[in-house]
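Researcher: Structure for this, please.
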Amino acid sequence: MKKINKKVIILALVAVAVVGAIVAVIVGQTTKLTNESYANCAIGDVNGDGYINSQDVLLIRSSLAGQTELFENQIKNGDSDADGQLTEKDAEIILKYATGEIRKLPYTSDSSAGISENDKMIQSSGDESETTVKIVNKWSNGDGTYSYQLNVSVRNLKESSFRGWETVITMSGDVEESKSWDCECEVKDNTITIEGESIPAETVGVCGVIVIGEENLKLESVTTEN
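Model: Predicted structure, token format:
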């Protein structure tokens, strides 16, 4: 059997290592990210991966905490409320967009824009419950319609659990449901009917609904029955 020359093996391994190092340097140089790498990204796409999601939110928060340094274009892409600054509000807006709560970026609508103080909230009280409905957010969908986020709280005034409760909200115009959480929701014409979980004695049940309708909708009435 022919004896293997150790020097040849060592030289071969060194050559492979050198070639690998050169390739790594070339790849690193050609893939090195710069400010221009983020020039054509969409608003909200801070990490430049082509998606707007929770990863962009985490990157903004890491930057705000001083843990990550962002390029100028990344900061511009993260400025989701177009106020010229990168803040926690931008992270919250991007998260809402990623979950479908907001349909368009940049989102520049004030949460109470176009809603008068008298139209933001409506209440009703009875012997068994007290109900409060608030319009906490409103934004244009860019197609002539507007989305309204309603927060609903039902306080159980009884000394026993509130079971099988139903809250009926009427608005000044027809709406359609976009999303609801912590409750069952049915929308017909200008009426929103909500059914929620059992509410223990002397506590509050809370849920939320997003509906779509025309501009300048108002809350007209609310009733809750057990």
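Researcher: Any notable elements?
Model: The longest strand covers residues 129-140. The longest helix spans residues 6-30.
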